């Protein structure tokens, strides 16, 4: 996770940003994956399924990952890495 976040901070769009660990800690959260984020963000599995999938099995199989990814990217920042994701607060 740390490497993925460091690479994100090292991009041209963040070149002028000052390192503020308190702000980073409050503005970004780590999740095991896209479905994990959706369940947390929407307040439960049934609400996340209502938002992104036709049923819980489709949601759990990852069939909604592209929709979840697009939703996050439309509203904030998504950093994907092996083993999880980092999402900005929005």
Cα shape:
elongated
- Beta content: 5-15%
Report the sheet with the most strands, covering strand number, pairing sense and barrel closure.
Answer: 3 strands, antiparallel
Poorly predicted parts:
none
Mean pLDDT: 88
Radius of gyration: 14 Å
Determine the structural class based on helices, strands and strand pairing.
alpha+beta
Order of helices and strands: HHEHHHHEE
Distance between the termini: 20 Å
**Count of DSSP H/I helices:** 6
Q: What strand line-up does the widest sheet have?
A: 1-3-2
Helix % is 40-55%
Question: How many beta strands in the DSSP annotation?
Answer: 3
Detail the topology: elements first, then pairings.
Elements: H1 2-9, H2 21-27, E1 28-31, H3 34-42, H4 45-52, H5 56-60, H6 65-75, E2 78-81, E3 84-88
Antiparallel strand pairs: 1-3, 2-3
Helix pairs in contact: 3-4
Write structural notes for this entry.
The protein is an alpha+beta fold. It has a domain at 29-90. The chain is 53% helix and 14% strand. It contains six helices and three strands. It has helices at residues 2-9, 21-27, 34-42, 45-52, 56-60, 65-75, and strands at residues 28-31, 78-81, 84-88. The chain has a three-stranded antiparallel beta sheet with strand order 1-3-2. The chain is elongated, with a radius of gyration of 14 Å. The mean pLDDT is 88.
């Amino acid at each position: 996770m740390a490497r993925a976040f460091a690479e994100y901070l090292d991009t041209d769009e963040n070149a002028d940003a000052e390192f503020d660990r308190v702000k980073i800690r409050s503005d970004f959260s780590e999740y095991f994956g896209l479905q994990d984020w959706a369940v947390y963000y929407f307040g439960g599995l049934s609400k996340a399924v209502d938002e992104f999938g036709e049923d819980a099995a489709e949601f759990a199989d990852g069939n909604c990952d592209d929709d979840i990814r697009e939703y996050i990217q439309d509203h904030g920042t998504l950093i994907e890495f092996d083993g999880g994701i980092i999402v900005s607060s929005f």
